[in-house]
User: Fold this.
Amino acid sequence: MIVRGMRHLIRAWRGGELGLLGFSLALAVAIVSGIAGFSDRLSRGMEQQSHHFLAADRVLKTSRTVPDVWLSTAKDFGLRTAKLASFQSMVYAGDDAMQLASIKAVSDDYPLLGNVGVSVELFGAADMRSSGPKSGELWMDSRLYALLDLPVGGEAAVGEKSFVATQALISEPDQGNMNEMLAPRGMINFADLAATGVVQPGSLVQYRYLFAGTEEQLARFEQWLEPQLEEGQRWQDVRDGQPAMAATLKRAEGFLLLAASLGVALAGAAIALAARRYGERNTDNVAIMKALGASRRQVLSHYVTQLTLLCAAAILVGGTAGYGLQWALFASLKEFISVDIPVASWRPLIVGAVTAFACTAVFAMPPVFALSKVSPLRVLRRSDEDSSAGLLASALIGVGGLGLLMWWYSDDVFMSAAVLLATLATGVLASALVLFAISFARRSFLERAAGALRIALAAIYRRRVGNAFQVASFALSLMVLSSLGLLRTSLLEDWQLQLPADAPNHFLINIQSSEIAALESFFKQNALKDAGLFPMVRGRLTHIDGQNVSDIKDIEASSGGINRELNLSWAKDLPDDNSLVSGSWWQDLAPSNSAGGDIVPVSVELELAEKLHLKLGSALSFNIGGQELEAQVSSIRRLDWSSMRPNFYFMFPPQSLEVYAGSYITSFYLPADKKALLSDLLRQFPTLTLIEIDGVILQMKAVVSQVSTAIGLVLVLIVVCALLVGVANVLASLDSRLHENAILRTLGASKKLIIRGLMLEFAAVGLLSGLIAAAGSNIALSVLQYWVLDMDVTLHAIVFVFAPVIGVLTMCSLAWLLCRQLVTQPPLVVLRQTR
Amino acid sequence: MIRVNNLCKTVVTGGQQLDILKGISFEIKAGESVAIVGASGAGKSTLLGLLAGLDNASSGDIYLHGKNISVMDEDRRAALRARHVGFVFQSFQLLPGMTALENVMLPLELAGRPDPVGEAKQYLDKVGLAERGGHYPRVLSGGEQQRVALARAFAVEPDILFADEPTGNLDEHTGQRIVDLLFALNSQSQTTLVLVTHEMNLAERCDRILIMHDGQLREESVVSSAI
Assistant:
């Protein structure tokens, strides 16, 4: 049966009707499998990368050493292990230079994942090393060198042991912990730890034991270890070390998935149009087959087998092309993706295959089912069967199927429903508008029109139902293109707004009020731009609505606000880059709503509020330097973590925290060529803590530009899809046009007249499609911006110019390219072929 | 072979009822060749469509090969056609995406014959187109296309052959050659032939002529006596 089916498929392919259908199917598979594969591998790669932020797959944090048997057991389970101890210690250089620093003593196997970046120049470019310092070596960060006024290669001592400071420490894989970034850092070999004499019983040391292996090995070891863990020992899983970057990539991934869904929608429209033409061109064949004795079942089986085999071929070709697309996407992002991308899995191909079969079932099968109903009497008496019959049912099946596919891809009911509703609205609006416009044009102009215009109007009216479908599908493709184009611009603008060229790339904390004037003067002297000074007090959230936070079981363990000390701040006015989601700022609080007595109002960041299930009016207790502070949530704020400005989870009114001893924080932009100023800054303000995030910002900017390249690549595919819809649109009516125009030419119509009529007709289709697409894309974009992407809604009037122009140009060009045979083939040949 | 009792066909067109066939009855014996002639619009093609089970009658019965096809559904009628009926059409009705050989193979495949290729080649040879099996209809002349159609019709060795204006799209000379071939093949295979035509000289080559006029069989004549 398959061999026979193949034979039939080859025959049908030679007949030329399957080319567009097969190509559209293969394109749908390529887009979906390519993008699914890309995002699948990128997610897995990022997960691996996030393991690098831990320098391991799992970490056991403890304040004291663990029994040796734990490590030997881990090795028995097949895990690799390393250990490190971190503590604060004075580092001495020369006779009188000394500085408190955070020292990390690492074993030879450290890091298990990722690399340590070092340089022989202060603040220089990192040279990546797979292990830490050897015994006798001390690696210090550039700040510590500056504070100690020591050159690289100089001698320094930690406790009782002298070291040669051989390298400037630029980056550590596990430096994500902000607390560790605050103090200047140094790294020594674990073997030298005892000789320093710094770690004594009772010393404040944190030990970290690193483990790496397969998920199964880790799970088995965790199962063994867990019952033995004591208070103060934490088994740490992978947590994303860079939320801003993750958010950016997640947004890009969401965009790509959306683009894939819309690509499939367009490919689906092309498939539906191509299948419709395939059905029409096979109507006579089916009548002949039936006259020769084929049953309805045989006809169905013949065409279903043909489509199934075509689908399989499309999966093969599209899957290969999808792999190529994955490769191209990774190639365009290669500078950003520093981790090894895992090998491609079968999942994207399965997604592509399901897409192909679903598209075939919902878009291509309805015309084939209609074929099985063709009357064999057609062989004797050709009747113009109503080609619009079943159009609505087919369209509904197609749209429903598409909705399910989108839901499956995005796992987001809301986004799928929004896109689908926009699609449906466009379809219905387009069809209604076209039918109205055609009737209006016929009533108003047909009698008075002459020449090409009359031919065009008559042709449009004759094919009004088909034209309505064509305009709807082409309008949809233009709408998708303009929506994605605008969205891309909007996303990039959004990112670029968040990351202007002079985005702060260094943070300074621990600024005392006495240092503010001198610091501002330093900034001014060196023409540095700061983000303003924000007051800050360290405190811990202890109770929510009277319940101890450690007893609240359903709060996500990952909630950043409950397990550590937080930076609390106060401000009279709402900071510029914050926006209120609910509640009111201090000035607008009604007296009855403002917390009275000793209870102060507090504004909470939105995501933290959601994680901690906080609402307006929730009662919070804070411990600030041993003193209790009672607060009540008076507002919830959305803030932009990507802004690189100081941001705070909790903000209070000025008078409520001013009594606590606090300090200030600021961020500022330092160009790369002024990095040496940091040494001067730290010498002048030795108590300040400097945090360098310029590397992260550079990485984020690279992501933005490279993600934009990847999106551009996907947009090219969408353009191909839109063109396919255009081609399918033009081809849909080619056969009947051939016949009609052959008759017109036989009756004496000139080629010029026919071409003009044709161009007018397609220009009208393009113009209407463009106008509808412009309206539709503005609506769709507003919905996406407001509800899905959390962006400000903006209307884009320019699309009302671009979309119609592109519509007219595309339709006319395609009509010219594809319909030339209307005037080049001799009328007699055409009439013979088309009867 | 074919028996028709009080056959009527009525269609509604433009809101009006139109009687195309008005109670026709006749019988065609196995091996007979019968021409149905009449003016354009007389109902010839409608009658042919009903006889071949391509359409449903409004009333009356048609017995084909002893079976009442008026009570059969479309699939059963198709199965009957696959086993017992061959067709030749005015406009050849070859499938454009298939070669001449593949066109001839089609009914053989539908009938589930074991060697469609061999049998199709044999019939293409009989119509003198053995060398053109790989050609598509578009590169064949009208006469050649009709010869392929003849090969296709006879390949399944039907009991009944329906021919609808088989020379209607051909010039006189080619038409004559096709008719000769049709009757030669018919006589070889002893097939019952039902031929719809408006050409009396073609009709006269049949054993009997049925004349259609205004939806009725006005005259049934045996050719020899008519002549």
Remarks:
- The mean pLDDT of chain B is 85.
